[in-house]
Amino acid sequence: MEGMHEEPEPQEDSGHVREGHAEIVDAAKKEEHHEDVKEKLKRKEFEIFVGGLDKDATEDDLRKVFSEVGNVTDVRLMMNPQTKKNKGFAFLCFATVEQAKRAFTELKNPLVLP
């Protein structure tokens, strides 16, 4: 095959990254980060903060009270690792934004008994 010139395949050098490729990877990472931030913000719409809890209150206690206004999908009860009791506050996630808003408006001073 005289006259045909075969280009050598490009070799990747692990110490160097082509500039164009780096820009694409960087843009992809920024887009992924942006999507993560948007998803977290969206989840926050479904979430409410509950403070002033009795230190003996449990996740089940919170679910019992707040399930009256909606479907509680997640309870994050902040715990003190030394005392093994809660820190007096929690974050509750609901199935819909409407349920979270309803819990916020209808349960201003809920009584959560341990």
UniProtKB/TrEMBL annotation:
SMART domains: RRM. One of its GO terms (molecular function) is RNA binding. Keywords: RNA-binding. Residues 46-114 form the RRM domain. Residues 1-37 are annotated as: Disordered. The keyword Cell membrane does not apply. This is RNA-binding (RRM/RBD/RNP motif) family protein. The keyword Endoplasmic reticulum does not apply.
